[in-house]
Amino acid sequence: MFLWCSFWLVRNFVRLGRVSEAETLYEQLLGYTKKLKLCSEMVDPVSGEALGNFHQALSHLAIIVAGLELNQAMQE
Q: Which residue of 11, 25, 36, 49 could cross-link 44, Cys pair, CB 3.0 to 4.6 Å?
């Protein structure tokens, strides 16, 4: 699973008003981060194994943007 696209799905759930689903998916995706809370480009959804480039800035940016939008939606 490509993490950037998965966090994009979180953002779309927020925009559709499906905040609880967005929150559930966001928390699930955060579970794929490693011990130092760093993540890779992709993750095997079955094993949780990091795939692709590791310490991927694009994935970290997606975490931040999705988190900000989710937080704002939860406050409203």
A: 49
